[in-house]
Amino acid sequence: MSERARVVVVEDHPLYRQAVVALVGELAWPVVGAFGDLESALPTVAEADLVVLDLGLPGTDGVEAVRAVRAANPAVRVLVLTMTDDPAVLGAAVRAGATGYLVKGAEPEDITRALTGTVRGQAVFEQALATSVFERAGHAVPDTAVRAFPSLTERELDVLELVAAGRSNAEIARTLVLSEKTARNHVSNILTKLGLTRSEAIARARDAGLGRGHLG
User: Fold this and answer.
1) CA-CA-CA-CA torsion for 189, 185, 210, 147, nearest 10 degrees?
2) pLDDT attached to residue 133
3) Rounded distance, CA 198 to CA 74, Å?
4) Separation of alpha carbons 180 and 198, rounded Å
5) Strand positions, DSSP E, the chain
6) What pTM, to 2 d.p., does this model score?
7) Half-sphere exposure of 102 (CA within 13 A, CB side)
8) How far is CA 90 from the centre of its chain?
9) Dmax over Cα atoms in the chain, in whole Å?
10) Helix (H/G/I), strand (E/B), else coil: 92
11) Antiparallel, parallel or unpaired: β 50-54 and 31-35
């Protein structure tokens, strides 16, 4: 990829969206689209080399948004800009295909470095968060859990890991940047697929190695 990238910005906050577009403009890169929601952005993603993506878009599961962008354009690079620095979200975003991850509040020069680094093919993370990202990405869901719950999707395994750690639906929603309704639906679907109560699912999931990294 040329270091001069075609960029799509997906950010629901108008001022922040304008700020990111301005930073891209300072690099003399073309912004092929700037959108406040994922649905509007997806048709344009095919034209992009880089997507700057907010995980907190209304009505959208943040990590699923990364997957949707990569499904629309498997070659595109995704730089996440979000409010959360939770390692569970960082790891899930990396597994979903994010190339870079910055927490909002980063200085403009840090965002510019992240833009250029991501386009060059580098994995770009804030230094203070890098260890958590790679630890989480490297052993995200144990193979034993994948084999133990073959009917569950990758996202449902992420949710089950937090269920196994004893997290409430509200806590799961905050950790994975979901609405509480979406988190509740994920949990309900998991329990229905497994034919288990929540307490039974916790015991089975812990036996399979889930939840241990979130206990305590």
Assistant:
1) 30
2) 47
3) 36
4) 17
5) 7-10, 31-35, 50-54, 77-82, 100-103, 124-125
6) 0.65
7) 21
8) 6
9) 56
10) helix
11) unpaired
Residue with the larger pLDDT of the pair 147 and 21? 21
- As to burial, measured by CB atoms within 10 angstroms (0-12 exposed, 13-18 middle, 19+ buried), residue 39 is exposed
Average pLDDT taken over every residue of the chain: 85
Distance CA 188, CA 81 (A): 30
Segments making up each domain of the chain, as ranges: 7-138, 143-210
Ramachandran angles phi, psi of 41, nearest 5°: -80, -35
Q: Is the pLDDT of residue 144 over 80?
A: no
Residue 123: which pLDDT band, with cuts at 50, 70 and 90? confident
Task: Look at the block and give the residue holding tokens 């906050």.
Answer: 13
Closest CA to 62 of 26, 23, 104: 104
Which sign does the torsion angle of CA 156, 68, 117, 75 carry? positive
Computed from CA positions of residues 152, 153, 154, 159, in that sequence, does the dihedral angle turn out positive or negative?
negative
Fold for the domain defined by 7-138: Rossmann fold (3.40.50)
206: which 2 tokens? 């812990």
Tokens of 43: 């048709």
Correct CATH for 143-210 of 3.40.930.10, 1.25.40.10, 3.40.50.1970, 1.10.10.10: 1.10.10.10
Measured from the Cβ of residue 201, the count of other Cβ atoms closer than 10 Å reads: 21
Q: Which of 66, 78, 121, 126 is nearest to 102 (CA)?
A: 126
- Enter the tokens of residue 76: 């595109």
Between CA 207 and CA 172 the distance in angstroms is 20
Q: Which amino acid is at 75?
A: A
